[in-house]
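Ticket #4471: structure output looks truncated?

Reporter: J.K.
Steps to reproduce: submitted the chain below (250 residues) through the standard prediction queue, then opened the result file.
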Amino acid sequence: MILYFSGTGNSLAVARHIAKATDETVMPLTEAVRMDLTAEKRIGLVFPSYDFNAPPAVRNLVPRLRLDPKAYVFVVIPCGAQAGNAIWTVRRLLREKGIELAYSHKIRVPDNSAIVFGRNPNDQKWKFTRFAGRLDTITADIRNGRRKLHFAWFSPLAWIMGTERMEQWMLRTFRPAVNETQCVGCGTCARVCPVRNITVDEKAAIGPHCTACLACLHACPHQAIMVGEKTAPKAHQYRHPGVKLTDLTR
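Returned output as attached by the reporter:
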């Protein structure tokens, strides 16, 4: 079983790639916490890194998983560049449950947060070709049950970036907001939000539990989601080319 957390499809696509080669199934991490997975002998966790750490939602969900302590557990981080302490953090959370992480790695993908800085994530699709070999290596390692941790060490810089005060500042900075003049209440943002933090009446409303995945920003067909009081250009909205919008909706 491969559990994923995905805002714009990168982690879902990587999870599917690994699942196909290992004859596993994929499931959203948000659904997996409601299931008994102790019969699974191989568990994968595929999620991005945000602000040099695992997303807040992932850190809240992993401790709630019901897993076999003897299962082969691996972590793969699709990220723009740095995994930071994402693997180290989840390894620690698993250890607190009596589970040792067997394998970990990262794979570079287009950075969907680039849109916040005025850059187009679609200009980074060259990463798919550049790092295809690494993804194949990761997949082969997992298929063969290899035990080796990559990018799992503790980073003091990532720890500083991940302090509660810094993280709260980053969440406020990257927290999406609704441009009510452009919002038509279509509900797309609510359906793609992986933590169910958005409600829609006549207009969309973003709740207090945002994990800053930017799924809503990239999926809104009316560009009615803003970050830093700036509306994202349609040309800069990103979704993994192998993932449909319906794959990310609930």
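Triage note (M.O.): checked the attachment and the full token line is present. The chain has a mean pLDDT of 93.
Status: closed, working as intended.
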